[in-house]
Amino acid sequence: MMHGDDKKYLHQISHKRIDPPPLAGGTPLVDIVEEAFLSYNGGRLREACRLFVSKMLADDTTVGLSLSGALTPAGLGMSCLVPLIEAGFIDWIVSTGANLYHDTHFALGMDLHQSRPGLDDLKLREHQVIRIYDIVFDYENLLGTDKFFRTLCRGEAFQKSLGTAEFHHLAGKYLDEREKAGGKKRSLWAAAHRCGVPIFTSSPGDSSIGMNLAALQLEGSALKIDPLRDVNQSAAIVYDAKKAGRSAVLILGGGSPKNFMLQTEPQIQEVLGLEESGHDYFLQVTDARPDTGGLSGATPQEAMTWGKVDPEQLPDTVTCYLDSTVFLPIFTVYALSKHAPRPHRRLMDRLPELTKQLEADYAARQRE
Fold it and tell me: pTM, whole model, 2 decimals?
């Protein structure tokens, strides 16, 4: 039998008594999240949705998204990420190059198709069909997209050294024009350009975009991608975010994009020696495990020891062990239903200014 102190403690740790109403055919998605996603990873998904809407979307909070896994070929760029960007819910992005490359197919008016896993891959190759698990498309998509990048990047505007955010913003102008000509807004990359959202790629050579730029280098192109510029520019975004308010990270998957987004804080604190305490809000969606080494950057608790997460904000972290393709549509509908659009921060427009401020503060620190 529970005593008074025991009951008091139980109520302290209780979020909600488990007594959900029966679901019906017409139950709105937001109500399903609130009333039926109570425990296990359903509970974590609900916590993730609530954290994003109640804290991460505050007016003074800058939201970064890291993106890994083949999400854009599955249509999640146009169905989820474009609406989130246009609503002002995503302020800057770190993505794999592959997600951007396959996103380009849509901007160029090319089609990808939903199919099924377990197809005869030898037969697919004979018919020049490319497969990404249960997504299939014509090999000509690759050739056409390669040709687009090589033709575009031979242009005079690209004959210089660029960080990946600068490169993506410049190329995004042309992708946006192609989309407008086609009459459909399907591209994450084009939406980011329109809204002034910087997109970094942490491994710029590790995609078909990088492969095509490498081919141009063999032709004598003056285009150079500067990944070290990315390190300082991304750190400058977070440094400014913490001066003006708070910094939040939304991590879909893991790998290099996740680490690149989180390393902004060690870059500021450990390497540059500037006063800082870590990201304030940490929302992670992953199907990896830390004990096998597959959960890149590990848990928010471990990230806190590196200075990546503010220890005082550790309760405002959620790790949801779930497939991003399941998580993201539910999360998007919840966020758009529960929060009004925010003004676009247009960090891409301010990137030179933010980087100069970081440089100035680092120089002052060095003089000390």
Answer: 0.92
